[in-house]
Amino acid sequence: MAKKKKYLKYVRYLFLWCVIFTLVYFISQPLITLQRVNLPHKQNILNKEQVSFDEMNSFLEVWSQYCAKGYPEIIGSGVSIYNEAIEDAVPQNIYIWLKRRDWTVKRFYYVEERMRSIVKAAILTQHMENNRLMLRHPGGLNSEALKNLKSIVDEQEEKFSIREVSKEEVEMVRGNLSLVDDILNCKVFYKP
Most buried in the list 144, 177, 178, 180, measured by CB within 10 Å? Predict the structure, then answer.
């Protein structure tokens, strides 16, 4: 009888330790995830912050290597910076590869999305400037065509303001717009 009580006491302690260990494990998981996110780029990722010229160059270099390794085909279009568990959505080998290049997963994909928006905004800016030039020098355009062109320019300006891209960021890529676009589409590799 004493052995049975001792055995039951042992089983209770073992069960209690298992429950405590399990609780500690599940409670600590969000903390581990937070530690993984706070790597080199300490800026707040989702507050529409600008990409600097140096960060753009660093990104384009790493992005070219990323493309050369075929990672875009592995990832596909399933990665979103708004996904809370983005680090878990990215394969571990890519996570480690980015970390070795001083990038967090969230920051890397944020800069990718931001760069794509900057390129689109720069293309839109070029179209707006061309259309404004046509408005200033209408040539043989009739009044109806001028009215339509003015309407197009107004729409383009509205689209530009929705993008939330700064004019500084647009100016940053304008000189090499087609090159930056080709790099983002993995057509050209960037080597500074």
Answer: 180
